[in-house]
Amino acid sequence: AFTLTSLVLALGACGPGDKAGGGSGDSDGGVGSDGGDSDGAPTTGDGGSDGSPGGSESDGAEPPEELKEIHAEGFTVAQISANQGVAVPIYENGAWVGGGRVAELPQNREVLIQALWEVGADWEPREIVGELTIVPPDGSEPLVARKKVMVEAEAYAGSFDRTFWWALPAELTMTGTKFQAQFFEAEKVPESTPEPENPPIAPAKPELIGFEDSYQVIRAVLVPIKHELEGSDCPDAPTITEDDVRVFHEFLHLQNPVEQTDIRVRDTLVYTGALTSFNGILNTLSELHDTDADADPSEYYYGLVSPCDGGPDGVGGQAISIP
What we know:
Elements: E1 12-13, E2 67-68, E3 75-83, E4 87-92, E5 95-96, E6 105-106, E7 111-119, E8 126-135, E9 143-151, E10 164-168, E11 178-185, E12 189-190, E13 201-208, E14 211-212, E15 217-227, H1 242-254, E16 260-265, E17 269-271, H2 279-291, E18 299-305
Parallel strand pairs: 6-14, 15-16, 15-17, 15-18
Antiparallel strand pairs: 1-9, 2-12, 3-4, 3-7, 4-5, 7-10, 8-9, 8-11, 11-13
């Protein structure tokens, strides 16, 4: 499990002098290094005793070739998704997904951008650098974030170690925000090395992430239930504290693509039926939802109970109409 709100993305502004679609090096210096010494001059390492930088016209030695960064060879972008509780593909099957999406992406809500890859059977495990460019809608400088991942096999969406991912804070999730991802070899290569035939750039030009100017809200009511059975010493209804509400709020918010999550606690409900099955109490909660004077039709009712008779065997919870 993870908490989106705890994942903070450090994005650097791409200045006017930076290469298009590029950015500064990784924090560990691996991608940003120039392959030379401290003053940026390439070295030959021939150890010449006269202190000269290796080779001269007299001995016919060729000057060393400059190094450059190159897109990853044999690496294909399978999918990029934006996740606010539901993974919404925004790049798939080699193209930007502009319509017919599985869910909306509300603005002003933190989002996880996750990229999955495909590699061939002859893939040589190595580090790959992923670069995400975010283009704000206000025309300000693009923001660039890079990270390095060891790619050993196919990606797996359920593991942060086997995907590229970036967490965008809510202030970057605005209508009109665009994205583009590129993937590079971690090791620089000689300047004469050609780019791969199909460089992993997804999409080919920055496209909309697709944040909607919509106000999505989910509302829930927590109902403490006192289970009473005649002739039995039954436990009290659960006490729902502010900490409990925060936990429910976090779970509900992370699993639903909404801008706001509201939770309130209702007065205690007394239930006198058997709890060897949840069916009866679910019907009671449904009726309560229909008859409560202050109930909103859009609210979900959640009952919390300590069963007096032990409860359904092996079942901790159930939703109505689901066997």
